[in-house]
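Before the break, one more example. Copy the sequence into your notebook; we will annotate it together after we see the structure.
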Amino acid sequence: MEHGFTPQGLDEWIGRVLAEDLGAGDVTANAVADEQAWARMWWEAKSPLVCCGLPVASRFFLVMDNLCVLDRAAEDGREAAPGDVLLEVRGPARALLSAERSALNVAQHLCGVASLTRKFADRIKCTGAKVAATRKTMPLFRRFEKYAVRVGGGIPHRFGLSDGVLIKENHIIVAGSISEAVSRARDYAHHLLRVQVEVTNMSELEEALEAGADLVLLDNMDPQSMRQAVERCQGRVIVEASGNVTLDNVREVAETGVDIISSGSLTHSAPSADISARMERLKEAPHG
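Here is what the structure looks like once it is written out:
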């Protein structure tokens, strides 16, 4: 999984997540499960979904207890139907019970992001437009959410504030004008960074183009205005549309001719995938 973590870094991150949930220990699992009890856990899809993050979720059990054995984890990008087994792991029953919720939270969210992104991407097929995520992500979870968007068929947009100049309304207010903001960005940023300006009307678009913006972001424009903006740009700059984009209208937005359609809903509003965890007790340890 291309999440950007090293194996050690991933395990350290998982350890912190588990520690948040465990506190001083899982009093329920420790009470009901003998220390010598072994079990098998498997996850099933309860509704159609795009798999994402199952390999990461499986690591929760191995970090919880290195005696756990992973039998399968569905690969990222695979489409699963209700009843499909997504993950199967064996190990100490206490470890499986204690890591279950944290692991499921990660998998359900990432599968949800990938599944929603796939729906958006399918809606705009053959239009030439691409759907993109934004920085509206959960703190310290961005790497996974951006990756899930890629798995679903979208593009990640800039990862963080150092990846590109995006001049928005409040930046313009501080600088005094679009032209001044672009000029200052050109003076400050190195030559490899592109400058994008958010515009809300044709007057602002004209100023951004005259100032030399490399990209423009059409913020909350109606489809007719978007078409007019695309025609005015004449391919000189990359045109991105954002604001109030839904599954119901994304096709109409794409058909205006914009290059990119960005939506924070891909990450902050994706419904969690419906996945259930089931267990059975084993007679002996996985290692015999």
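The chain has two domains: 7-120+271-282, 122-268. The chain is about 45% helix and 20% strand. Try to locate both features in your own notes.
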